[in-house]
Amino acid sequence: MENYREQFIELYNKNITRPGADRLLKWLEGTDFFRAPASTKFHGACEQGLVMHSINVYNAMMQHFFTENDNAETFAVCALLHDVCKANFYKVSTRNVKNDATGQWEKVPFYQVADQLPYGHGEKSVYLIEHFMRLKTDEAIAIRWHMGGFDDAVRGGSYAVSDAYNRYPLAVKLHTADLIATYLMEQGTSSVENGH
Description:
Elements: H1 4-15, H2 21-29, H3 49-65, H4 72-81, E1 90-98, E2 105-113, H5 122-129, H6 137-144, H7 152-155, H8 160-167, H9 169-185
Antiparallel strand pairs: 1-2
């Protein structure tokens, strides 16, 4: 199993140096962030899926969107921390599944949501990050709206995401990098049963 934790910490410490960054990293290390899945059954539904996804979003943002006019710390903050809302968010449970080969019922592990702070998605990440360090306005907007059309507020008819994308190109870059990581880089990374 790759050591995504070490990769994340190296990228974090190299790029994120603003006041409070050290306290935020210490908090992350006290959560399940480095062991948690990125989802219950879709992309990264495996041990270390969340940290793997965060690194993949960082790599996608840097590869596809970073220019000499961009700020490396801002890109790292957005990509590496956009999903901190998923720390302490999932738990492993079991369910009975019939084994097709034997016809026997077997207990199989799976991830389920056990949200300890039901505060939305992107806004929850912003809220948690700002307990430790200040975000710039474009960073907060990008993290808040990184889910784009998959966000519950957008499905309910909000125009705020469109306004955010029109005003803050960083938000578009983060959302697109998240899509690239989720749908192009992480296919086949789901399975709590076999630890992929």
